Amino acid sequence: MATLTKSKAVGSKAAKAPRLQQFIDGRWIEGVGRKEIVSSSPSDTRRTVAVVQGASREDALRALDAAQAALPKWKAVPAPQRGRILQKFVELARARKEELARLMSLEQGKILPEAMGEMEKGINLVEWFAGEGMRLMGVAAPSELHSNLLYTLRQPLGVVSVITPWNFPWAIPCWKIAPALVGGNTVVFKPASLVPALSVEFVKLWEQAGVPAGVLNLVIGAGSEIGNLLVEDKRVRAVTFTGSNSVGKGVHTIAGARGIKVVCEMGGKNPCVVMDDADLDLALAGVVKGAFGATGQRCTATSRLLLHDKIADRFLEMVLRSAKAIRVGDALDPKSGMGPAVDEGQLQTDLDYIRFAQEDGARLLCGGRRLSEGDLAHGFFVEPTVFDGVTTKMRLWKEEVFGPVLAVTRFSTYEQALSLANDCEFGLTSAIYTQNLTLAMRFADDIESGMTHINSPTIGGEAQVPFGGIKGSGVGEREMAKEGMNFFTELKTVFLDYTGRKRDSSIY
Q1: Is 236 buried (19+), middle (13-18) or exposed (0-12) by CB count in 10 A?
Q2: How would you write 462-502 as a 3-class SS string?
Q3: Contact 406, 388 (CB under 8 A)
Q4: 270-454 has the same fold as 7-266+473-492
Q5: What is each CA distance from 230 to 61, 122, 332, 397, in whole angstroms?
Q6: Beta-carbon neighbour count of residue 130 at 10 Å?
Q7: What strands, in cross-sheet order, belong to the sheet with 36-40?
Q8: pLDDT per residue over 365-401, tens digit each?
């Protein structure tokens, strides 16, 4: 996330920064919203990335008008041709992969290797969905009657609202917009206001790839001004949202009351269980990457570490050595192993939860401080932080931090570990490290999460398998893979009687 300020507060820096526009009906236009959005680097707020006049309600209405008007022609384009546009996007994005990754690091704060990884994941996702243009087919079924053909069709829903967060500003729009477009829908895309520069470049690639005017529209603005409209408007036939639980529940309530399709991917408080027979070096790599990668700012982050009593002290020492060795710094510095919190608000949230944990009696083992030495004073940096002795009654156990803060507890039996892991309102992802195949398979069956990993971190996913959670982590269809494709289409069953005469049958 970039920081938000009024442009006059940053003076000449904002004046020199690129001025971005909204993209509505195939044209780049100035927004007419009340707020001017200034995007600054979370590594160094002295660096202004871009400025954009936010979208107004009127802008959003124009985007919906454009999407509705473009729908008949777009859905009439054969699906394989729509898929070829996605493939063109892949080619264009791959050619600019490093450039756009650097922009992501500058604007959002991921260290460059992580930004490069996100770029590649997003490109792979679009490439997979491009192939769906050739696979967007129904099925034929045998009829109980002669001279009767039964088959199904997959057809577009119509206008779709796509609402995305700041933490994966490239990959998440890719896995939502690509299937929406190849499925024949038109899109109004509202990214987080805090990553406008990368969002604009993302849409420019679709424009260059040949998406017709009105098929994809970009509105950058405050959720308070345009968010509800993109869910409530009668032209919107589906909403796909990723973000906080509080907003997601509101989106689901409104969309559900309208009877339209909705998917909300929300928070996580993901457990990683390390058994006494685990390969500890393997587990260490997974825990450190899962807990502190991307500064802990992902819904799949490892936030709860459950250690078997027999290996707990030894493994915890390994974790502490690794955490203390992480160099925190500018996201574009090749020496940095962890970047900044996304903005001052998220930094304060991290520090608040560190304070809550101490007040609740958890033992701070490392980290816990804001880093403000030298140039770090101009960014939002916090140390990788580890707490031991975290109990199920503590806020640090129950609530999502979205930062590099790891809660550790201990157990003596698998049954205890499972009970602790499932003691959470969230159910996004999970992991277990063990050499016992029977135990691993039991965990896969027993854990209350939409995804689970065996001997690998809680993070990650692939285009060809579904992504999503249960309990408080998500509602609606899974994303990615066939499930993600199916969300953006309606299934129609066709009955074709070719007898040419009246039929008498008990079936009808």
Answers
A1: buried
A2: CCCCCECCEECCEECCCECHHHHHHHCEEEEEEEEECCCCC
A3: no
A4: no
A5: 9, 24, 35, 34
A6: 22
A7: 19-20, 48-53, 36-40
A8: 999 999 999 999 999 999 999 999 999 999 999 999 9
Q: What is the mean pLDDT of residues 332-354?
A: 98
Q: Where does 7-266+473-492 sit in CATH, by number?
A: 3.40.605.10
Maximum CA pair distance of the chain? 87
Domain ranges within the chain, ordered by starting residue? 7-266+473-492, 270-454
DSSP one-letter code for 105: H
Tokens 């006494």, residue? 276
Neighbours of 507 (CB within 10 A): 8
Token pair of 39 as six digits: 């995007």
Residues 423-464: tens digit of each pLDDT: 999 999 999 999 999 999 999 999 999 999 999 999 989 999
Q: What is the DSSP letter of 184?
A: T
Residues 300 and 24: their CA atoms lie apart, in Å, by: 33
Superfamily of domain 270-454: Aldehyde Dehydrogenase; Chain A, domain 2 (3.40.309.10)
CA 326 to chain centre: 25
pTM comes to 0.94
Amino acid at 116: M
| pLDDT of amino acid 13 | 55
Amino acid at 23: F
Residues with a catalytic annotation lie at 265, 299
Q: Which amino acid is at 317?
A: E
